Amino acid sequence: MAGKEENVVISAGDCTLTLIPALGGKISSLRILSHELLQSPLHPFAPRTHTMGFAEGDASGWDECLPSVSECTVATEAGKAFIPDHGDLWRIPWQVLDSSPDSATLRVSCFSLPLQLTRSVILSETQTGWRLQLLYSLTNMGATSVPWAWTAHPLFVSEPGDRIVLPGEVQALRLEGSGGNRLGCNGDEVSWPIATLADGSAFDLSLARSADTGFGDKLFTGVMQDGWCALERPSIGLRLSVHFDPRLTPYIGLWLCYGGWPEEPGLKQVCVALEPSTSPVDSLAESGSWSRTLAPGETVNWPMTLGIEPIQPG
Question: I want to staple 277 with a disulfide (CB 3.0 to 4.6 A). Which of 31, 32, 251, 286 is the partner?
């Protein structure tokens, strides 16, 4: 069994995954041979505080956003709770419960709300590629009911020529935010895949762009019936397919960043995040039909899978 301060490395054939329990249980690396699939760090790995912004950290790899993505204050039966930027979990150590050559189970407790998350990751080879299975279990450890929302936060590195693929049911997306209001304002409906920009021109959102484009957009689907989305990377001959159970996590968040974030001077993200989510908004303080509470002692479970398969190189 690994200690919480040690990195955990699991592998299956030519696929290797690295976890950093001490830094929020982060999946810091996911590699196929020499190809790194996750966004590299913008800043060196370092301890985090309970209040720092996500941009002050390394802003890389794969984190879990719980119990909110946006910083907010929410009312609970026990009083008001402040939730920091991108939630609690990326900024605190996780405990390693078990690890083996191809799997690991980690656990962590939120500090803003009495929620405990256990996440297992299992890596395997398939007939055509690799599969990363993630199993989540969330328990309310407190004495009162609490609200919560979860979003996966895998930042897949991208380059021009990559294509984002969504099920045919997705014809439009809800805009959470767009740098310079390029796509409009929060809450606007944006057509998929061809969007009309604020200046009236057409733009294909499904095509990844170069770092000098300076775009950064966050969008959400509505309730999904088909539980998948994908990023095709012809230059390295791989297709990354995210699968989820839409009865449990009904929404997809899309973070499309091509040099548009962080706003401060320095290195920028160039990535596409495909984010299964319990909510179609970033803030837990924004309530709606999607809002969830967990009763004292109650546990909820959900899965997510990343499939990695070869495609014809571009």
Answer: 251
